[in-house]
Fold this protein.
Amino acid sequence: MEEEGNVKAPRSGATPAKAEGKAGVKDTRNTGPGRLLIAVYAVFAISATARAGYQILTKFSEAPLAYLLSAFAALVYVVATVSLAKPGRTWFRISLAAVLVELVGVLVVGALSVFDPVAFPHETVWSLFGRGYAFIPLLLPVLGLVWLYRRRPHLK
């Protein structure tokens, strides 16, 4: 007979060690406000993928650079969404890389679209620093980096 207070772990495939990671610290990137961040990334992943797909299929010859950049942005948003939702250090590193690539992309494409508008005859998600999306593409990686910094895994 078990003593009062002792509770058996559920028999699902996830053990507490798997949920907490190797260091024994629970991974909380996908809880609380992290869920909202993941949801926003998911919306951008879906919308950027749909937009890029439509642009590439229907009018690729009009602005190939812009539409390929839209497709690249969509891929970055998909990777960021998936990696933010997954626990573990490897997924943390993938999240960090995706969000950093996103920030660099927004800054570079945003600056190029301001200083060389001829190269971007049609807008991308990152054109003019995300102006067509209420500047959320500029704000999102900053919030993502802050969230990742606050939820970084403890390294031993």
The chain has a mean pLDDT of 83. The helical segments are 16-20, 33-59, 64-85, 89-115, 136-150. The first helix runs from residue 16 to 20. The chain has five helices and no strands.
